[in-house]
Every structure is written in structure tokens, then in C-alpha cells.
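Researcher: Please translate sequence to C-alpha cells.
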Amino acid sequence: MYQISIHIRAAGACLILIAGLAQPVHADEPKVPSGQELAFDNRKGNCLACHSMPGDPKAVTSTNIAPPLLGMKQRFPDRAKLYAQIWDATKANPDTLMPPFGKHRILNEDEINKVVDYVYGL
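Model: Translation complete:
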């Protein structure tokens, strides 16, 4: 009986410790957008303004301004080159119409990484 009581107290203490570590979720905290949300957001990535993307019905566009975002792992086997392209495409092609999303602070580094991760999955 004494051993059971010790185990129950220890379990209760663990639950109290775990409960104390939990962080409350506040409704007013901004949602962190996904790579897809950033790519589709016309105030951020706005990829759909120039690129078509497979799969998602929201991504179906009839644009021919830029190449479709297909087979991106094959086109950019080095992930860093795709990141650099989104950061500042003018380094690879000074005449490009693609905005320098990182250089002009349209997207921050974390957001560009999310977009790269999303686009790499297409």
C-alpha cells in the first residue's frame, strides 16, 4: 500500500510539472503562414501572378510570364540556388522580371525557406 501511494504522488507531481510547462495558446497571436500560403499570398510571394503550379485548383492560372513551377528538384538540384533565385533573381539574370523578394524584404529568410520547401515539393 505504501509503494502505491508513493507512485501515485510521483505521478501527480509529474503531471503538475508538465502542466506548468505548457504554454497557453492565445487567439490573438498571429498565425505563422505555410510555404503554400506565402506563395499564394498576393502581398507576399504572389507566385501565381507569374507562375502556374500543379495540383491545387487555386494554383491553376493561364499565365505565361514565367515558367511553371514543375519538377523544381530536377531544375534546381542545389536547394541553395533556388533560395538565391527567390532572394534576388537579378544576380543570375539582370533582365529578369522576377522581384528580388529577399533583397527588397518582401519575404524574410524564414519565409523564403518555407516557399522553397513548398515549391520543392511540386
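Researcher: Any highlights?
Model: The radius of gyration is 23 Å.
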